[in-house]
Design the sequence.
């Protein structure tokens, strides 16, 4: 301030402004003085107050040069850059992103196609020659536990509808993963087209087996009819009858280690309501046809399985006897 005032008083046409020096003291005073009869010269006052005249173009600071740029030129340059990004760069990256997305979708469709079977393969598979037993009961009634033992004793293939749905949900190329996840979290019934497709494919994956336990299916009458119309009819229904309080206790205990998203009190209550409203009528309907084998789950674990084992053994013996009679009848018919 003092130096500026001093310069103004000593030379009325001198304009002074502060600038950063490239060397020497931290700040220097830079001024432009008009020499009589000549062009403006630049004088720098350093530490000792001396001046050195140099050309105007070589001594202007970077900031000084920015001050001389026309603001309209800056606006024009910014407009050109923004327009270039909007018209060229952004569309290019969007095109690349869309191209990659479509390529990923094609790969996913190919993987989905590999995971399934053609209509011709489905039509040729002998579903009608298979022994299918539906395993029903409320959540936590013991369907999975007893089914695993029946596999060991009678050579069944155990297909859990819930396990198949969860596996499909986690499969990277699944087209139904998010949808299945939503239905499971809400305790709702997954659309039967998805569930039946998974069960049918699982049966076709095991063509050497003639016996299948389908656990946790059908969940309603629509699923039951659709399965029997498109796959095959079930021979029997194995129903585990269990009080709700017992099932709740089992599920909460299982939830501590199962890692399942539906083993929590909120989802469990929704599953109970779904079971009562939708699944129980399936059991009642099959009971009218004399196809239900009921096992009470209020006994010990050992007694529950003994009862289950005895009923399954009797069913298989009846089916074998029926198969022999049908074969004999056919042989007699062929001889005639």
Sequence:
């Amino acid at each position: 301030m003092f130096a500026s005032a001093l310069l103004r008083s000593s030379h009325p046409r001198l304009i002074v402004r502060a600038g950063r020096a490239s060397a020497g003291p931290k700040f220097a005073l830079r001024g432009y003085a008009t020499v009589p009869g000549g062009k403006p010269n630049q004088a720098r006052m350093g530490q000792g107050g001396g001046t050195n005249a140099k050309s105007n173009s070589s001594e202007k600071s970077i900031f000084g040069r920015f001050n001389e740029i026309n603001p309209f030129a800056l606006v024009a340059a910014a407009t050109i850059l923004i327009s270039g990004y909007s018209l060229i760069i952004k569309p290019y990256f969007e095109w690349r992103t869309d191209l990659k997305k479509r390529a990923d979708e094609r790969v996913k469709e190919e993987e989905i196609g590999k995971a399934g079977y053609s209509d011709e393969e489905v039509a040729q598979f002998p579903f009608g020659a298979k022994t299918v037993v539906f395993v029903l009961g409320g959540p936590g009634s013991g369907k999975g536990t007893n089914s695993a033992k029946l596999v060991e004793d009678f050579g069944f293939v155990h297909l859990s509808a819930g396990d198949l749905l969860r596996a499909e949900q986690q499969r990277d190329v699944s087209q139904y993963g998010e949808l299945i996840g939503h239905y499971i979290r809400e305790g709702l019934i997954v659309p039967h087209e998805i569930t039946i497709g998974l069960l049918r494919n699982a049966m076709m994956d095991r063509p050497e087996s003639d016996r299948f336990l389908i656990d946790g299916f059908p969940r309603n009458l629509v699923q039951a009819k659709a399965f029997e119309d498109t796959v095959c009819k079930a021979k029997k229904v194995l129903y585990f009858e269990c009080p709700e309080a017992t099932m709740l206790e089992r599920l909460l205990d299982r939830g501590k280690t199962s890692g399942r998203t539906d083993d929590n009190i909120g989802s469990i209550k929704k599953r109970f309501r779904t079971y009562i409203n939708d699944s129980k009528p399936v059991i009642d309907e099959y009971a009218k046809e004399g196809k239900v084998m009921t096992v009470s789950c209020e006994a010990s674990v050992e007694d529950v399985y003994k009862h289950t084992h005895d009923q399954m053994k009797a069913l298989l013996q009846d089916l074998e006897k029926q198969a022999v009679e049908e074969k004999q009848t056919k042989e007699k018919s062929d001889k005639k």
Observations:
- The first strand starts at residue 15 and ends at 20.
- Residues 100 and 106 are 10 Å apart (CA to CA).
- Confidence is low (pLDDT under 50) at residues 1-36, 38-55, 108-114.
